[in-house]
Amino acid sequence: MLILRPSDVASSEITPEGTYLNRRRFIGAMAAGAASTLVSGPADAAAQEAQEKLTPYDDVTTYNNFYEFGTGKDDPVKNAHTLRPRPWSVAVEGHVRKPAVYGLEDFVKPYTVEDRVYRLRCVEGWSMVIPWRGFELRRLIERVEPTSQAKYVEFITLHDPQQMPEQRRGTLDWPYNEGLRMDEAMHPLTLLTTGLYGKELPNQNGAPLRLVVPWKYGFKSGKSIVKIRFVEQQPQTAWMKANGREYGFYSNVNPDVDHPRWSQKRERRIGELGRRTTLMFNGYGDQVAGLYAGMDLRRFY
Ligand SMILES: Nc1nc2c(c(=O)[nH]1)N[C@H]1C(S)=C(S)[C@@H](COP(=O)(O)O)O[C@H]1N2
Ligand SMILES: [Mo]
Known about the structure:
Layout: H1 23-32, H2 42-51, H3 57-60, H4 75-79, E1 89-94, E2 100-103, H5 108-111, E3 113-121, E4 126-136, H6 137-144, E5 152-157, E6 177-181, H7 182-185, E7 191-196, E8 199-200, E9 210-212, E10 225-231, H8 238-243, E11 266-269, E12 276-277, H9 285-288
This protein binds the ligand Nc1nc2c(c(=O)[nH]1)N[C@H]1C(S)=C(S)[C@@H](COP(=O)(O)O)O[C@H]1N2 and molybdenum atom (MO).
Molybdenum atom (MO) binds at residues 65, 122-124, 218-219.
């Protein structure tokens, strides 16, 4: 039997956007555990905390990548009203002892954490800082009891051209899918999110359930997930199928491995002028570098 730990942040404490930069809240988040911190290590903690402001809600929800609604940054906010995020169910299948179709309410509430502030680094060279509401994916994984054959987890987005009109076109091989190695999926930083800035996820951000893996490029964070499949072989993802030379399975943020068409050394933080240095593993190296010990990250990009 799993021990459920309800969020220790009461809903009455949820801070409205704009007041998030209260220094004490950030210190509180750090004390609560390494996994919930924005910063990568004690040495640069104070500096990072001072420098990294949350990306304004209006930018987070109007400048998006969600190709099911078009390829322009402002297409998702204009077009995603056709998505119906409720009711919603998620099928969990493959190498698990307890396959199931879950309604969102089945497990979300007791596991929910608020205010997980993560950087999101798009492979295109822009980034944001977003406070998520969600739950650690490992809670769901523990619940469905994967067998020893489960080596990878695949995440599959809704496939319904009525709700996602761009799926009538061949922009990608629909449905959008992504994947993680089992240890990456079990990492406490890996979230299934249901909200941001203390509110339900807007459709354009991947309502009602969206993966967030902060040390990887943004495209690994699949939106509007309807299926989670435990598999033995590394899945082919939508982006690998579109261009496997440019988009690998791991896709860890890595300033030393350029995209074939551009450098990944720097990034533009949305809302800021100028560029910042991109950090190895997006700044989460202290927590995740161990997952890749001994791996050639140029080969496994
Ligand atoms: N289903 C789906 N998920 C997706 C995408 C997409 O096109 N379809 N785009 C990805 C990319 S490239 C990025 S950078 C992030 C963007 O998330 P945001 O719009 O919430 O900032 O979502 C990712 N998840
Ligand atoms: Mo992206």
